[in-house]
Amino acid sequence: MKLAEKLAKALEEARGSVEYWQDIAETDFTRDLHDRMAKLGISQGELARRMGTSRPYVTKLLDGGNFTLHTMVKLAMALDAVVRVRLEGKEERAEEQTEIETATPEKAQNEWLAPVRSAEMGITRAAERTPRTARTKGSRKAS
């Protein structure tokens, strides 16, 4: 059996598992979080502050944490959004996922990182608007 055939078979078997579809749902939700954060110019630190939790916890969630519905709602509320759970035909979603999985690494990386880069640009612009003395720890007021 050729490698391509083995991979196709393995992918087909994976698509029959709960874990495969759970991972896709978590990835979709995480991508939506990154998009919303970029749109609002909110950093992970600011998201943590809004949620009343630590930045490392938010980082863990955004890196693909195992979400409960409660946690998803808390994240959404902190981003002034709501969670909508909907059902979608498995075949349609599988086709979309195949496009994602077979995309060139550069295309996939660019699509995934675009919201992150936008958020970073927003944070950089906000930092540039902040007076230097406010950004420097322990700085003295100018006389």
Plain-language structure description:
- The longest helix has 25 residues, at 105-129.
- This protein has helices at 3-14, 18-40, 44-51, 55-62, 69-78, 90-102, 105-129, 132-135.
- 72% of the residues lie in helices and 0% in strands.
- The radius of gyration is 20 Å and the shape is elongated.
- Helix 3 crosses helix 4 (55-62).
- The chain is built from 8 helices and no strands.
- It has 143 residues and is an all-alpha fold.
Short description:
This protein is mainly α and 143 residues long. Helix content is 72%, strand content 0%. Mean pLDDT is 78; it is low at 129-143.
Keywords:
0% strand; disordered C terminus; elongated; 143 residues; mainly alpha
- The N- and C-terminal alpha carbons lie at a distance of 77 Å
Structural class: mainly alpha
Q: Give the overall silhouette.
A: elongated
What is the count of DSSP helices, taking H or I runs of 4+ residues? 8
- Average pLDDT rating: 78
Q: What's the number of extended β-strand segments?
A: 0
* Integer-rounded radius of gyration: 20 Å
Query: What percentage of residues falls in helices of 4 or more residues?
Result: over 70%
Unreliable residue stretches:
129-143
Largest sheet: none
N-to-C series of helices and strands? HHHHHHHH
Give the arrangement of secondary structure elements.
Elements: H1 3-14, H2 18-40, H3 44-51, H4 55-62, H5 69-78, H6 90-102, H7 105-129, H8 132-135
Helix pairs in contact: 2-7, 3-4
